[in-house]
Amino acid sequence: MPPKELVIIANTGDDETFHNLHICPDIDTVMYTLAGISDRDRGWGLSGETWNAQEMLLTYGTNPWFNLGDRDLGTHIRRTDLLSQNFTLSEVTTELCEHLGVNQIIAPMSDDPVRTRIKTKNGDLSFQEYFVKYQCKPFVKGITFSGSELAAPSSIFLNGLNQARALIFCPSNPFLSVDPILSINGVRKSVIDFKGPKIAISPIVNGKAIKGPAAKLLSELGHEVSAVGVAKYFRDLCDIFILDNKDSHNLNAIKKLGIEARTTNTIMTTEADKISLAKFVLSLTKTFHD
Description:
The protein is α/β, with parallel strands linked by helices. It folds into two domains: 8-101, CofD-like domain (Helicase, Ruva Protein, domain 3), CATH 1.10.8; 165-289, Rossmann fold (3-Layer(aba) Sandwich), CATH 3.40.50.10680. The chain has twelve helices and 13 strands. A four-stranded parallel sheet has the order 8-9-12-13. The chain has a three-stranded antiparallel sheet with strand order 6-5-7. Strand 12 (240-244), helix 11 and strand 13 (260-264) form a beta-alpha-beta unit. The radius of gyration is 19 Å and the shape is globular. The chain starts with 6 loop residues before the first strand and ends with a helix. The model has no long low-confidence stretch (mean pLDDT 95). Pfam families: CofD. InterPro entries: CofD, CofD-like_dom_sf, FbiA/CofD. Keywords: Magnesium, Transferase. This is 2-phospho-L-lactate transferase. GO terms for molecular function: LPPG:FO 2-phospho-L-lactate transferase activity; magnesium ion binding.
């Protein structure tokens, strides 16, 4: 697939300001991964990272619970500088990608600020407080997206929706990664009305999340903790639901929801696993069009 035919829309509900710098965790993870410089062991940040600035902050008596590596800081400094010059987040992201040699199109869901807020028994938390500071431990009662009612989709996002041949929901947390995007004005309706194939990949395998708190949130928010539970969430949003081979016994239950269901290996342990899943998804888009 030619790189420019892939448009990746990143959730920016996780964005936060630390040390007066604009941090975009989801954008940066995608950007670093496609640039081939991500830390694959940690799953975030840069490979070969050093932590001298973080250690100096500790020396000064601060308690920086959100870790920022030295090289990573360069990204945030440059982003913040460009944003202060009134460039949009989309424009800034495009420039950063060009310098890193990323040829695919990465764009924020919106150039307007939207922030995920987690309602817990101990009060409201920002996403990063919940996810990083408290390690997803608090019981979640609800999730809101501050600013979404005033936000518009980024122009790249809108163009992508209008020109795309297919929409693919990666195996991400539906509440923390997908819902923020759908909360923006008009996006949910545009997805529902999209005429091409809409394919979702389950982040739950054999009743467990591959990574992160997806299973925990499904339970706490009153959903079935299974691939079927995720399929119910996507009922109005996708035509084809992909679940792992280990969940093949759920095929009929998902088909009863009015969604086509397919199984394959969705656990991406190796590079070959990732390529295989990508090819499988693309093959389904061609079958749909045929």
